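Side project, low priority. Logging it here so it doesn't get lost.
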Amino acid sequence: MKLGTLLLRNAAIGLTQLEGALRNQVLYGGRLGTNLIELGYLDLETLSAYLAELTGYPIATPSMLEAAEPRLLERLGADDAHRLRAIPLGYLAAAGGTAAVAFVDPTDTAAIEQVAAQIGAEVTPYIVPELRALYFLEKHFGLPRRPRFVRPGRPPTEPEPEAPDRRRSQPSGGIVIPPALTLEPRRRRASSQAEVPPRPPISISFEEACQRIDTAPHRERIADVFAEYARGRCEALVVFLVRDGNAIGWRGYVARPAHPKVPIEELSLPLGGASSLQSAHDTGQSYSGPPGPDHPTEARLWAALGTADPADLIVVPLVVKERVVNLIYAHSIADPWPGLAIELTELASRAQATYLRLIRQARGP
């Protein structure tokens, strides 16, 4: 039985709520329970109880996670803990050298075997919801959650550590739309820009990119295609998730010799003030041309990507059911690829159709 079926059977949620959570899961990722909590349809304690009923594994309670055994945490290590979504809790007194370990997916036998080998003990799995696991992984190992899993604007179920630079809200004065774009004759590039190295060969053709998006089996493949398409056509491309008034990095490409100073998955830019991202988001129309005279949001992005200031940029909104769910940002330091804006717009349109197909499939017959 699936989690959604169990919740419906017990009237914990309604069909409309389940469909909304499945839609958000397709668009934003995360597990179904995570999306139900983010939408306010369940709380963590209720979700934990249903996950335990569904899987048959005991619940890793907040007190158990808080008191996790430091020696076991050290043996597993931060990288493996995050990769396997596992938190060692401690040794079970009645089971000799057996350790209790909380897993987001306690049915993943390969992950259980890897944890057992890493900590040198037999493992008894416990179940923990994704959001709670990510909170305690951050607390115990110090590696911050990706912005996609940090949600402002709703009372947190777990206490939030201070992280002033990781979440931004809309400015109190409201949103300022950039002035209408007017394309001027291209200015001659400065000598420093003329030294930009040649682009590598393109990775995939436009036609192949269209075909891959049309047949994508899940959301991650859509993002992968955009990043692969960018190679050889522009100096940088970022696919953003749009959530809670922020553009959150999801996938991207940055041409050498530039090197991102911040991992793309950790980018979080506020959609407030005058910016090309804000313009594309609010109008639902692509933004194409040179950067405006004031571009603090873009400048922050360029610094994070480790690139020079571009001569041209493009932002294409990806709209699903009248809501902008992604922003596709690309910029060129060398001469722009001919037809880049048109091709990105077409790819976004095809991605929209694929999202809708995946949402229908997630809902089932």
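Brief comment: The longest strand covers residues 323-332.
Revisit when time allows.
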